[in-house]
Amino acid sequence: MAQSQWWVKRYLKAFCKGFFVAVPVAVTFLDRVACVARVEGASMQPSLNPGGSQSSDVVLLNHWKVRNFEVHRGDIVSLV
Predict the structure, then answer these.
(1) Which of 24, 27, 49, 71 is deepest in the core (most CB within 10 A)?
(2) CB within 8 A of 9, min separation 6: which ones?
(3) Confidence of residue 66 (pLDDT cuts 50, 70, 90)
(4) What is the pTM of this model?
(5) Residue 42 per-residue DSSP state
(6) Angle at Cα 35 formed by Cα 16 and Cα 41, nearest 5°?
(7) Per-residue pLDDT tens over the stretch 9-65
(8) How the protein sits in the membrane (predicted)?
(9) Closest by alpha carbon to 63, among 47, 50, 78?
(10) Tally of helices (H runs) and strands (E runs) in the chain
């Protein structure tokens, strides 16, 4: 019985350590570097969503390009 409790405590301790490291790293990455967004609707056709309203595309939004003012003609810019 003591062996199984020791294993559970060790597993929970390792999980908590990984969780408390991974969550701040993931939040910082999504806030500062890039995030994933889904494009729905006909506003970006034919570049995105060529199938219309029944399909959606997934895009990566690059935060660094906008922060460094490296936006060029033809780039797609997302505003919130």
Answers:
(1) 49
(2) none
(3) confident
(4) 0.56
(5) S
(6) 130
(7) 888 888 888 888 899 999 988 888 888 888 877 777 777 777 766 777 888 888 888
(8) Single-pass membrane protein
(9) 78
(10) 2, 2
